[in-house]
Amino acid sequence: MTTLTWLVIGIAGVAVAAALYWFNKETGADVDGDGDVDLKDLTLAAKKTKVGVKKTVKETKQRAKRVKEELADVTVAVKEAAKQSKDVVAAAKGKKRTGPKKLK
Predict the structure, then answer these.
(1) In this structure, how many other beta carbons lie within 10 angstroms of the beta carbon of residue 90?
(2) Cβ-contact 31, 44 below 8 angstroms
(3) Distance (Å, rounded) from C-alpha 74 to C-alpha 82?
(4) Residue pLDDT, tens place only, 8-24
């Protein structure tokens, strides 16, 4: 092989190594920052993930509780609106107002 071929192969090898190094740094595979990816990195990543999952579960439970509260409020409002709609139908038929008096 010629020198040019070896030069191209060498440059390609350096480019691949640089890409792998950059990928490991950007994705956080090297959690402890010692320059290699090993069992310690896996353990630390698992701990971080476990903490993240606990926070997410807690937040999801809080959101579900708030949604439940809001649905209860909406249910009450819909029931009240259904009662009020009966008054609208009665008014359309020409019946007198049965609700509270209007404020002036």
Answers:
(1) 13
(2) yes
(3) 12
(4) 999 999 999 888 777 76
Taking the model in full, what pTM does it have?
0.48
Buried b (16+ CB within 10 A) or exposed e, 2-13: eeeeeeeeeeee
pLDDT at 3: 86
Q: What is the DSSP string of 71-87?
A: HHHHHHHHHHHHHHHHH
Rounded to 5 degrees, φ, ψ at 100 are -65, 155
CB 45 within 8 A of CB 33: no
Token code pair at residue 28: 């956080």
pLDDT of residue 35: 67
Q: How is residue 33 written in tokens?
A: 């920052």
- Cα distance between residue 95 and residue 19, in whole Å: 81
Q: How crowded is residue 21: how many other Cβ atoms within 10 Å of its Cβ?
A: 12
